[in-house]
Amino acid sequence: xxxxxxxxxxxxxxxxxxxxxxxxxxxxxxxxxxxxxxxxxxxxxxxxxxxxxxxxxxxxxxxxxxxxxxxxxxxxxxxxxxxxxxxxxxxxxxxxxxxxxxxxxxxxxxxxxxxxxxxxxxxxxxxxxxxxxxxxxxxxxxxxxxxxxxxxxxxxxxxxxxxxxxx
Length: 167
Known about the structure:
With 167 residues, the protein is of the alpha+beta class. It contains 5 helices and 9 strands; from the N terminus they run βαβαααβββββββα. The chain has helices at 15-18, 37-46, 48-61, 67-74, 133-158, and strands at 3-5, 24-30, 80-81, 84-89, 93-98, 103-108, 113-119, 122-123, 129-130. The protein has a 7-stranded antiparallel β-sheet with strand order 1-2-7-6-5-4-3. Strands 8-9 form a two-stranded antiparallel ribbon. It is globular. The mean pLDDT is 93.
């Protein structure tokens, strides 16, 4: 799967954050992969790699989530999933924010499949905006993980059964 980093699209739900001082944003695109938003959301949140994250969140934060809840989120029937809630949604994009308000996840099918993140800065003791040492130390791992998540969702969509169900 060809996953490339790209500029945040100008009219996307995360574009406003890319323009703000101190915010971190990224955007990864799976070239050649396509889906409607509902299918992409379900594939993303039910893939094996993300299920591992869901398990960690259950243990560490007591945030239970199921494949059925991921499907309900995809259909727009619920607006909370694990530690996230829907911040904004359009016909082609979903923006989820975590319970702390510091991180956001963005899914888009506007131009193929895209996945992006936003990290909100905080002020240090001197009043400067910073993402903090923990985020900076995990940035390389985050970028690898983001690519793997997008690739996993794209593969899951490609291997969806003829009945439209994920195998």
